[in-house]
């Protein structure tokens, strides 16, 4: 699989892992404090070949993504689920821990940032699905982020990201319906097992 765009990653380990999965060129940010030179390099890459931002699914990765989005419009985004980026030893999250198959899958399902953010989703709609303003909202946002392949966010960022990628209520409704069905099935299975154990 050959990637035409230049992939922006955080470090050398990420580049090595990406090159195991696909044929691609990368730019490394070398940490969350991206310097001006690197931002200019990314801007040039966007103007000539296009850019895919592919950072770790953690706070520093989100910070890098936000910095790039602010400065360079129209970049594409690839996301990994936290489970797919977990170190086998536990603790750290990163692209360098992902399997080549997972990396290829993430790069097949990229989102393009649109300059005009349009969507029929508002905060009230997110509240109705318990994605904001509830004790369990963070868990629901994580499940939705995985289902839609848009990464994990806080409540404010979720609304912005859904609008940025022009996702509509229909996509969220379908994803949340499937998520709740799966959670209900897991709860039923757990209750059944407990019933069997109590016999």
UniProtKB/TrEMBL annotation:
Catalytic reaction equation(s): Endonucleolytic cleavage of RNA, removing 21 and 42 nucleotides, respectively, from the 5'- and 3'-termini of a 5S-rRNA precursor
Signal peptide as annotated in the record: none
InterPro entries per record: RNase_M5, RNase_M5_C, TOPRIM_dom, TOPRIM_RNase_M5-like
Enzyme class: hydrolase
UniProt xrefs under Gene3D superfamilies: 3.40.1360.10
Major subcellular location class: cytoplasm
Function according to Swiss-Prot or TrEMBL: Required for correct processing of both the 5' and 3' ends of 5S rRNA precursor. Cleaves both sides of a double-stranded region yielding mature 5S rRNA in one step.
Name of the protein described by the UniProt record: Ribonuclease M5
């Amino acid at each position: 699989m050959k990637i035409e765009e230049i992939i922006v990653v955080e470090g050398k380990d990420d580049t090595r892992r990406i090159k195991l999965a696909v044929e691609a060129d990368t730019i490394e940010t070398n940490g969350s404090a991206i310097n001006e030179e690197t931002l200019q390099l990314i801007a040039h890459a966007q103007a000539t070949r296009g850019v895919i931002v592919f950072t770790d699914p953690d706070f520093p990765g989100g910070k890098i993504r936000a910095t790039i989005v602010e400065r360079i419009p129209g970049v594409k985004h690839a996301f990994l689920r936290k489970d797919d980026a977990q170190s086998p030893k536990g603790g750290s999250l990163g692209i360098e821990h992902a399997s080549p198959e997972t990396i290829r899958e993430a790069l097949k399902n990229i989102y393009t940032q649109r300059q005009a953010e349009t969507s029929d989703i508002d905060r009230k709609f997110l509240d109705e699905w318990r994605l904001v303003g509830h004790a369990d909202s963070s868990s629901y946002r994580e499940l939705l982020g995985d289902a839609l392949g848009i990464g994990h966010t806080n409540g404010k960022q979720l609304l912005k990201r859904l609008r940025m990628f022009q996702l509509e209520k229909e996509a969220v409704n379908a994803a949340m319906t499937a998520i709740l069905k799966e959670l209900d099935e897991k709860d039923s299975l757990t209750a059944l097992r407990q019933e069997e154990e109590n016999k």
